[in-house]
């Protein structure tokens, strides 16, 4: 990152909730270092080299929560390598336990701000990016912390291949409007919806999440937006 590039700013809130169980704490000290993306060294020219076996392409999930969606995608797409970013310690611990249990070898992890990894990635290296139920930061004074912004779209545009998809889901209608407005204003992305069902219904193979189920129970129907890198 050069002096001319914008300063990074965190988009997440608290780092840890309830204390970790003993095995979870052990995994954060043993398995996480082995899977963590090392942004202190240059990224490989071919991002697929991050993984211990050949993969066809690389996807990223920004803020994967407890890892339910990340793990589902890894199980369903064994030829894809995944980079999962989650600064919340408890969510990372849950994902580590699932990775260990299922023996998944196509996931690399980052436990800090996802922008650190995005800025580290080589140009046009990602085929898909997921941003699912990000913190909406509802207070106006906190809007600058929302992940969807002109600056972060610039950064994503650099690392996404032409034709790559940015998949965004939220149950907060004001954040959905915010995302649509920002992406419409960005020359590198286009919203791919053609009918209402393209944003009302989840993507094929969507596993759902506990957060999503809670939102639906509470009367907040989610929107599922797909943006294409031009």
TrEMBL record:
GO MF annotation terms: tRNA (guanine(46)-N7)-methyltransferase activity
Gene field: trmB
Sequence positions that bind substrate: 139, 171, 209-212
Binding site for S-adenosyl-L-methionine: 61, 86, 113, 135
Gene3D superfamilies reported for this sequence: Vaccinia Virus protein VP39
InterPro entries noted in UniProt: SAM-dependent_MTases_sf, tRNA_(Gua-N-7)_MeTrfase_Trmb, tRNA_methyltr_TrmB_bact
Species assigned in the record: Pseudoxanthobacter soli DSM 19599
Any single GO CC term annotated in Swiss-Prot or TrEMBL for this entry: tRNA methyltransferase complex
Record family assignment: Belongs to the class I-like SAM-binding methyltransferase superfamily. TrmB family.
Protein name (Swiss-Prot/TrEMBL): tRNA (guanine-N(7)-)-methyltransferase
Coiled-coil boundaries: none
Enzyme Commission numbers on file: 2.1.1.33
Pfam families documented for this protein: Methyltransf_4 (PF02390)
Described function: Catalyzes the formation of N(7)-methylguanine at position 46 (m7G46) in tRNA.
PROSITE patterns on file: SAM_MT_TRMB
Keyword annotations from UniProtKB, A to Z: Methyltransferase, S-adenosyl-L-methionine, Transferase, tRNA processing
The reaction(s) this protein catalyses: guanosine(46) in tRNA + S-adenosyl-L-methionine = N(7)-methylguanosine(46) in tRNA + S-adenosyl-L-homocysteine
Annotated metabolic or biological route of this protein: tRNA modification; N(7)-methylguanine-tRNA biosynthesis
């Amino acid at each position: 990152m050069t002096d001319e590039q914008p300063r990074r700013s965190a988009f997440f809130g608290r780092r840890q909730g309830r204390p970790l169980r003993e095995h979870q704490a052990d995994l954060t000290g043993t398995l996480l270092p082995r899977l963590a993306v090392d942004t202190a060294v240059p990224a490989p020219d071919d991002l697929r080299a991050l993984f211990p076996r050949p993969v066809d392409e690389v996807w990223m999930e920004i803020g994967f929560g407890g890892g339910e969606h990340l793990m589902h995608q890894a199980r369903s797409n064994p030829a894809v390598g995944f980079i999962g970013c989650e600064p919340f310690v408890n969510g990372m611990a849950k994902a580590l336990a699932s990775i260990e249990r299922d023996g998944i070898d196509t996931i690399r992890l980052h436990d800090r701000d996802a922008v650190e990894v995005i800025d580290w990635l080589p140009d046009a290296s990602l085929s898909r990016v997921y941003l699912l139920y990000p913190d909406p930061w509802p207070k106006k004074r906190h809007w600058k912390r929302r992940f969807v912004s002109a600056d972060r779209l610039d950064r994503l545009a650099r690392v996404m291949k032409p034709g790559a998809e940015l998949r965004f889901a939220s149950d907060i209608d004001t954040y959905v409007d915010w995302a649509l407005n920002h992406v419409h204003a960005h020359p590198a992305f286009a919203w791919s919806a053609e009918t209402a069902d393209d944003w009302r219904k989840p993507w094929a193979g969507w596993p759902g999440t506990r957060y999503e189920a809670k939102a639906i129970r509470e009367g907040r129907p989610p929107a599922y937006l797909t943006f294409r890198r031009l």
